[in-house]
Amino acid sequence: MTKPHALRDYALVTACYWAFTLTDGALRVLVLLYLSERGFTPLELATAFVGYEALGVVTNLAGGWVGARLGLRVTLFAGLALQLAALLALGYDPSALTISLVLAAQAVSGVAKDLTKMSSKSWVKLVVPEGDSRGLLKWVSLLTGSKNALKGVGFFLGGLMLSTVGFQTACLAMAGLIALALVLAALLLGATGGGRVNGTQVEGMFSRDARLNWLAAARLFLFAARDTWFVVALPLCLATVLGWGSWRVGAFLAAWVIAYGAVQASAPAWVGTRSAGERVPPDGRRLALWTTALALPLAGLAAGLRAGADPTIALVIGLYAFGFVFAANSAVHSYLIVHYAESDAVAQRVGFYYASNAAGRLLGTFASGALYQWGGAGIEGLVATLVAAVVCVLVSAAMTVLLGRADRAQSQGLSSLS
Q1: Is the pLDDT of residue 339 over 80?
Q2: pLDDT tier for residue 254 given thresholds of 50, 70 and 90
Q3: Torsion angle of alpha carbons 114, 104, 58, 76, nearest 10°?
Q4: Residue 313 CB-density burial (10 A; 0-12 exposed, 13-18 middle, 19+ buried)
Q5: Which DSSP letter does residue 309 get?
Q6: What are the pLDDT digits (tens) for 388-416?
Q7: Cβ contacts of residue 317 below 8 Å, gap of 6+?
Q8: Geometric angle at alpha carbon 47, from 46 and 53, rounded to 5°
């Protein structure tokens, strides 16, 4: 049975993560569209986000170690405090923003995001009873799905606030929300939260489990596939080629991310397999099928745009088809990392895994701006990013095949010992 205080603490951690996610999604749209309006090129915009993703690699590794040594409470507070500092820095004098300043502020925000995410996702393992695989899948999917839905709301708020109250007021308002979350967490969160582990060594940040390593490699290319076309190229195409205003771009991205989050949260009901009349959580072999399927909507969208299809219709259909399959992939990934992680090292394992996630986002973010600009900063540029995304998906699928073999070998090894 789960202890009541553990559920209370987890609810508070989740609320803090939700507040952070709102500001994270809004800030992404605010910075991207605000700098685009000021004449920054796609490659410059991608560069502004490089620090956000690059420091995520280091943060996830170091954050997992710190979380294991000092407790997830410390990493949660640090994440909220850093996000507060980033928002205040960006909102202080928007007219003086340069690529260097935005790069630094976004780097701080990237550290904040990964500390907060690692803390909240690792906390799930402390709430769900040991051995409850179906319960673990349900909790992880609910957390991840709700996070993505709220990030979508953040996208909408970012575009709406930019077109109504402006960049500075939006940043300061979000800083107030994060400050409130930080104060409430400091006052109410249990002092022992986070499962501190004594004797943790730095080398423990890296995994010796082949399943975790293949899963991390697959995650890297999976998120590179998404961000290569979604992060810079798609919003700029909507704003400059289709002529959409900032609030409309934000609303469109928000609707997609909210739908994506809803699909992800519902994944436990259908993403696994059936055995003896019950839904069995997915394994590495199941992930290989979902990853391979992701290439279809990307290739179809690229072909449609290249053939001259109406870009608005093609993007709506293609983006939602992609989102459904990607949500299934992400749900399985999020479940497997927590499932594979040892209970006494969950913070380190989740940190290691999400370091690869940040590496994939870094690769995708830079490629999104570079390929979009290289392709002419229009429909052809978007097609170039889609082709690159298909390549990343195929590489990720190859990694999941190897994961499936490692998963099967692990299961057979445990069976022989029983």
Answers
A1: no
A2: confident
A3: -30
A4: exposed
A5: -
A6: 999 999 999 999 999 888 877 766 654 44
A7: 301
A8: 85
Cα angle value 215/221/223 (rounded, 5°): 95
Distance from C-alpha of 379 to C-alpha of 238, rounded to nearest angstrom: 10
3-class SS at 287?
Answer: helix
Residue closest to 181 by CA, chosen among 24, 396, 302? 24
Query: Measuring CA to CA, which residue among 157, 75, 149, 70 is closest to residue 118?
Result: 75
State the DSSP H helix or E strand holding residue 22, giving kind and residue range, or none if neither: helix 4-37
pLDDT in tens, 35-92: 888 888 888 888 888 888 888 777 767 766 666 676 778 888 999 999 999 999 998 8
Which residues lie across from 274 on neighbouring strands?
279
Domains assigned to the chain:
4-188+205-417 (1.20.1250.20)
Which helix (H) or strand (E) is 280 found in, with range? strand 278-280
The encoded tokens of residue 208 equal 């010796």
In the numeric block, the tokens 């939006």 are attached to 170
